[in-house]
Amino acid sequence: MLVSGGRTGTQFFGDRISLAISQCFSVHDPDVLSIFLKRNFSRIRAFGFRHMVLDRVLCRAGLRSTGQLLLRGKLTDAEAIRRVRLARESYYDRIEEPLIVESNTQWLHVLELLPSIWPQAKVVVIVRDPRTWIRSWLNKGFHQRPYDPARWFPPGRYTPSMVGDNEWESDWVRLDTFGRLAWEWRYVYSRLRKFVREHRQAEIYRFEDLFAGPLTLEMRRLVEFAANHDGREFSVRIPSDFGAIVKNASKGNAADWSGWSRKQRGLVESMCGELMADFGYLTPTGRSS
Predict the structure, then answer these.
(1) Cα separation of 15 and 103, whole Å?
(2) Is 183 helix (H, G, I), strand (E, B) or coil?
(3) How far apart are CA 26 and CA 13, in angstroms?
(4) 213-220: long-range contacts (C-beta < 8 A, 24 or more apart)?
(5) pLDDT (tens digit, 9 = 90+) per residue, 208-245?
(6) Pseudo-torsion of CA 62, 64, 67, 73, nearest 10°?
(7) What residues form DSSP beta bridges with 232?
(8) Cα(286)–Cα(88) distance, rounded to whole angstroms?
(9) Domains in the chain, please, with CATH?
(10) Residue 218 CA to chain centroid, in angstroms?
């Protein structure tokens, strides 16, 4: 599984990995918020209209709604596992290749259940510096804004009250889009870091290290980690330009972090500083690990 907080090109990256590892098939099950994009029509055909559209709108399927209903106590672990297995097995059983790489940011919502669903599964987490991650989402246009389409699909996006974050719950209504994105980065990567620390078959990689050149050592390490699976080593042939193209760009005029206000820098420092330092990122005030 390739998992991140978004804006890391995971779908494109998963497709590239499947080309570098023999007998490997790339899968991407898009969230309900993007199912009607033209590039996802093939996924509707693969997973079925009921799973991809109808059941998701009604919160009967989909990793995002399943995970959030589980978090709110409206689903048991057993029911959530049943939902995920039902959706995946009907599709996975039709795939001939023995190794499947699924790139999906939505696995965040049910990642703790993965060892109970597929004990042999490996997880690759990709983290991106919040200084560029926040800007990328701002340039994307809708995420965490008043017109965010997630508002129309219950239970919506995570909030501090939903996850029991008492520190920021009372301030949530006063946070603008920038502040809510900073909080989301902290929540997402705190949760992913915890999972990686607790599971031997999970590793975390920095986006900036992976795409620092056409073929970095980190990129090779990631592919080889994925290729050694369930006691079997799949052969690897990585193109020399493997990391030369990054498909995660978004157009917009959001300011680079060096142009942030003092208030914005302080907000990211207070929300994300400890985690940034742990990942080896320089914080807005210059602190690093």
Answers:
(1) 8
(2) helix
(3) 9
(4) 213/243, 213/244, 214/240, 214/241, 214/242, 214/243, 214/244, 215/239, 215/240, 215/241, 215/242, 215/243, 216/243, 219/243
(5) 999 888 888 999 999 999 999 999 999 999 988 887 66
(6) -100
(7) 229
(8) 44
(9) 2-256 (3.40.50)
(10) 19
Rounded distance between C-alpha atoms, residue 103 and residue 226, angstroms: 12
* pLDDT, tens digit, 9 for 90 and up, residues 14-47: 888 999 999 999 987 765 555 445 444 555 566 5
Tokens 């946070």 identify what position? 175
Q: For the residues of 13-47, what is the DSSP string, one character each?
A: HHHHHHHHBTTEEEE----GGGTTSGGGHHHHHHH
Tokens of 190: 């705190």
Q: How many CB atoms lie within 10 A of CB 200?
A: 7
Joined tokens for residue 88: 């995946």
